[in-house]
Structures are given as C-alpha cells and as structure tokens.
Design a protein that fits this description.
alpha+beta; three-stranded mixed beta sheet; two-stranded antiparallel ribbon; 3 helices; 5 strands
Length: 163
C-alpha cells in the first residue's frame, strides 16, 4: 500500500504449490482483484514456496517473468502517484476545454444579441440584461470550485471518492 495515498501499488497472491491449475486460478483471482479496484495497471504477482534460496518464487502475471522488479516499493509508489497526477491533469484539461467552448458560445450569443439590439431588430431592457447575466452565471457555475459574491464565499462540496 502507498501509505500517503492509501491506495494499493502491488498485489500478491500466495499459493501452496506451483502447478498449471494454481497458476491459472491465481492469475484469475488477481485479475478479478484489479477489476474490483478499477485499476488494471497495478502490478500483480503469484508467490510460490521453493526449497532453495530465496525459498520463494515470484511470477508477474502480466509478463510471466520470475523475480520481476517487485521489491522496488518507492518506485511503485512514485509510479502510482505519477499516474494519479496525470489523470488529474487530463481531467483538468478536459474541464478547461469545455469551459473555453462554453465561454465562446456564450460570447457569440451575447455579441449577436448586442448586434440585433443596435440594428433595432431586437430590443433589450434592464430586465432582459438581468436575466442574461443570471443565465450566463448559471452556465459558468459548474466550472467553478469557489465563488465569492459580495464577500460571501461558496465552495463546491466534493466526494472523497472523486478525488
């Protein structure tokens, strides 16, 4: 477990003896475990007892290599943190892209309303402006984590699972 993020970084399945059935069954168990954790990138290993040094045998279920670099705890922690940071960055970029598109659409609509108002095809009164400002605010609120209005700060509640 990564002690800082409290997430699994490696999974081991211990078996009493090595044979074709135990390898297939253990591999199936480890894959189900990763699927439950919703992370197929977690390294998973089968461990079998052995009569000579080092008295155990480790098989990487993804590479079928014995004695893969499984004991590099810090390396696996850093890898899992990097993947989490990368995922957060990608999600942030998606939100920013959606915000840009929404802002451009709202800007174009407001521009067209202003042009129509100046040409006389459409008239805007103070009530229409108020409704327009409220509508724009409601479109943009989902992109904000914190909003401060007249000295009062509103913050979006987040679910720990979403983090």
């Amino acid at each position: 477990m990564d002690q800082k993020q409290n997430i699994p970084i490696q999974i081991f399945e211990l078996k009493t003896n090595k044979n074709k059935h135990s390898i297939e069954f253990g591999t199936k168990q480890l894959k189900e475990c990763r699927s439950i954790l919703k992370n197929n990138n977690i390294p998973a290993y089968l461990v079998f007892p052995k009569n000579e040094t080092p008295y155990f045998e480790v098989i990487d279920i993804d590479n079928k290599d014995e004695f893969s670099n499984i004991f590099n705890y810090q390396g696996h922690c850093n890898k899992s943190r990097f993947e989490a940071a990368k995922s957060i960055k990608e999600n942030k970029e998606k939100v920013i892209d959606r915000f840009k598109i929404t802002s451009w659409i709202i800007g174009i609509i407001v521009f067209l309303l202003c042009v129509l108002s100046k040409t006389g095809l459409f008239s805007i009164n103070p009530e229409d402006i108020t409704m327009l400002v409220i509508s724009i605010g409601l479109f943009l609120i989902p992109f904000a984590n914190k909003i401060r209005i007249l000295g009062i700060e509103f913050e979006r509640m987040t679910n720990n699972k979403d983090k």
